[in-house]
Amino acid sequence: MKVYEAVDFINRHEKIALSKHANHLQEPEHTHTFFELVYIWSGSGTQQVNAQSYDVQRGDLLFMNVGDRHSFQAGPDFTYMNVLFEPDFLSEQLTAAEAAHNLLSLQLFQEFHAKLNKPMPVVAFRGKRMVEIEELLETMYREYEEKRSGYRAMLKGYATLLLAMAFRTMQDHLHSSGLNGAYHMLPQLLTYIEQHYDGRITLQDLAKQSYYSPYYISKVFVECLGFTFTEYVQQIRLREAKRKLLETADTVEAIGRSVGYADKTQFFRLFKQAFGMTPQQLRKMGRSTDFHSK
């Protein structure tokens, strides 16, 4: 069995590495000398951790400890993000031997240790938690790619937050009777929205995709995410508009149309409500101060 060494995947000065992968159909069994978190971004597949098989989909996070055995098979639309870090990334006092036993031995995570004993190999993020962890991972990936001043300190903080979110969700699952059907359905619905947000998309469209009624899907959004279907579509559109304003030279009107707003006035009004400034003001601020988030 192949052993993946940290030196081959992680810069020794950074002690952490993030990467995105698409259509990686198979990975033979291996082990490694570092921690590995795998977040499933789209598609589905089968992951094996220490000879135990898990069917995974969007919203699932795999946690591989130092020395765990891991392999996977996936479909053609499978995409995921890897977060790799060395045992002493979060604490220089954590030795490789201690890490191999349990990351929860860190004082930082002691409050989880009594109930969890050890991390679960797979934890499912659904509903609002899935949206939150994806936002966190995107922020981490941007920090890692841009390598702006202080990025390593930022990544250490974000990694701590990511692990705390994972451990809290693992702990909650221990006391849950199981995720309901709505939570299992949500990742596919959100993926469909993200692929069609730039056109006219309705609850009826989602009903055709899921075989649930528009009324039921509407209820799922409110109960699982905390906001309505319309609010979620608007959030996706405005997030993409913000990205295009900062990363392209397209006109404001063209960007509004490209994210689904044929009405220029509506686009301007919703954008200002969401970000507290007009599209032109955000673009100007981004160019002058390297503005990235609000």
Automatic annotation (TrEMBL):
Domain spans labelled HTH araC/xylS-type: 187-285
SMART domains named among the record's database cross-references: HTH_ARAC (SM00342)
Alphabetically ordered keywords of this record: DNA-binding, Transcription, Transcription regulation
Top-level division of the source organism's lineage: Bacteria
PROSITE patterns in UniProt: HTH_ARAC_FAMILY_1, HTH_ARAC_FAMILY_2
A UniProt-annotated Pfam family: HTH_18
Stated name of the protein: HTH araC/xylS-type domain-containing protein
